[in-house]
Amino acid sequence: GKFGVGFYSSFMVAGAKGVEVVSRSASLSQDAPYSVWSSDGIGSYTIDSSSSAPSLPQSRGTAITIHLSDETADYADAGKVEAIIKKYSNFVTFPIHLDGERVNTVDAVWARDPGSEKIEDETYDAFYKYVANAYDEPMYRLHYRADAPVDIRALFFVPTYHTEKYGMGHMEPGVSLYSRKVLIEAKSPDILPEWMRFVKGVVDSEDLPLSVSRERAQDSALIQKLRTALTKRFTSFLAKMARKDPEKYKTEFFPEFGQFLKEGVCRDYPSQDALSKLLYFDSSKCENGETTSFEEYVGRCTPDQKEIYYLVAPNREAALNSPYFEIFLKADREVFFVYTAMDDFVMTNLGMFQSRKLVSAEKGEIDLPDDSEKDAAAEAEEKDVDPAAARLTDVQTGELCAWLETEALPDRLAAAKVTHRLSMHPAIVVGHESGAMRRMMLLVNQRTGGEGTSGKLPKQTLEVNPSHPIVVGLHALRERDEDLAVLCAQQLLDNAIIEAGLMDEGGRDMLPRLNEILMRLTAKKDSDI
């Protein structure tokens, strides 16, 4: 040892007879006496000489004898002592024998230099199974050493799977901290960010004192340097793997561990930029089943595109058929398709990538070429809208919007506006939180018993398509049968809310209204319809 901590700790388990140390230098003759140091740990000690030393059978070196107290007698149990040795000193260079048999037999693979000697894959795999208590083969392996800014000997493994997806709870950290091959902290929560908890392995740093404690380590500048260096090295390693074998990264690693990288984007701000380059999502430019990265998306952007667009949807088919995607399709603008609340949260937290703002397709104002919205309206006239159907004038549209706001839907609408971004759909709601995010917040609120998030939807902003037959018909209907028009307006809004993924409880609340509409329509004479 260096600080005497281990020797000092012997008095914590010693009884009244204390501790005895017998020593004789190998440079002395066989006839030289042994030095005997003894103390009960209370405050004094004695030094004597002896012509014999039964505790030192090799007649040289040092033997420490601890006379255990009754309360600590279990430390004389060979099984307990062996477990302690294997936990804390299994990798030290010097052999440790217990009852004549060597205990520390595992090679400290991380301490070997991967740059100057060949280490077999079988050796790495065996070590992985030992430190991770695993039976699978590692997907990736990172073995490196560095001297600056801090001494590091690290060996990381990425397993083939993780257990959180099976509902087994939050995984504990998987990397242990050593100094000179002596365990400082098993499964340390301090040396790696929490999102890296799926990584298994070992970190050894000779810059760490053996007396380091977790309490001091949490605020230690040295630990922070170690954490920063390790995180940067691991993210750069993943980037290298993605370039070296993109198929393996995209089809094996990312589907299994991508959620941890996304968590890192949201919680580990210093690593956010590096992690964002490692993410992959579905996109309108991808073939079904393929994914793409932010860098690939930006590489396909035209110079005038200043924003990166994304759309939250249940699946790819729903995204392609979404009214929010119409204008981007006409403008030939690529849109990321994201399918979970986590992905939505990632986009919101990231906010920007390479000077391009991340913008939800459900946003009210979309910065697209000037003629995109006009093209959408023109397509409606050319393809799907009956040529005989009238298109509402600006005045008529204004009247309809005012009626929706003040008479038909005053308790549910913050505003009603005209839009030309639609061609196939009558209306959309804009500027809201995504349906996935809303459901996640409601779930969190229910689990925590909080009161911060109500299940009731806030007032919405409704944008109507003045060229769609439903909107044109609604304007005319309110003159003939305002009660029925109000019911239809309610349904128009609910349809838009469903398209946005905001409808709770499967929309059962609107069934009575649908029945009322059907009843009134079926009761009318043909001449009245």
TrEMBL record:
The record's annotation in InterPro entries points to: HATPase_C_sf, HSP90_C, Hsp90_fam, Hsp90_N, Ribosomal_Su5_D2-typ_SF
Drop me one GO molecular function for this one. Answer: ATP hydrolysis activity
Record keywords, A-Z: ATP-binding, Chaperone, Nucleotide-binding
Residues that bind ATP, according to the entry? Answer: T62, R214
Task: Please indicate if the UniProt record lists Iron as a keyword.
Answer: no
SUPFAM superfamilies linked to this entry: ATPase domain of HSP90 chaperone/DNA topoisomerase II/histidine kinase (SSF55874), HSP90 C-terminal domain (SSF110942), Ribosomal protein S5 domain 2-like (SSF54211)
- Give the similarity note: Belongs to the heat shock protein 90 family.
Q: NCBIfam families in the record, alphabetically?
A: PRK05218.1 (NF003555)
Q: What is this protein called?
A: Histidine kinase/HSP90-like ATPase domain-containing protein
Q: Which organism is it from?
A: Corethron hystrix
